[in-house]
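User: Fold this; tokens only.

Assistant: Input:
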Amino acid sequence: MKRVGILNSTISEMVANMGHTDMLAIVDMGFPIPDGAKKVDLVVDKGKPGLLEVVEVILKELEVEKIILAEEMNEKNPETRDLLINLVGKNNSNVKIEFVPHEEFKKISRTSKGFVRTGADRPYSNVILVSGVIF
């Protein structure tokens, strides 16, 4: 049995298979995941698990060079935005942050290698993690 890092075998596999610039979408409980997309639905209750706790564990294993957020998060959910940016910055201070309109975010997410649905129940609690390289 694995002791540390991502213990969910499907998420662990998704991260292990990512290459440079591949994307992984970590989304809230209401996000429209495309039919046929590879997904892990972690929701057990409203708010559980939260976006930040899921991202925190994934960052232990995934090298991230950029995150993509919906620009609507700036007005509708600045608390989560700030906590997320701080969390990602602790792991890598050079991470780029890109804001796009929510409709564009949904289009971009369709090219993700996978989706992880959290129990996040705050508006626009979604992030796309863009994989970096370790060399």
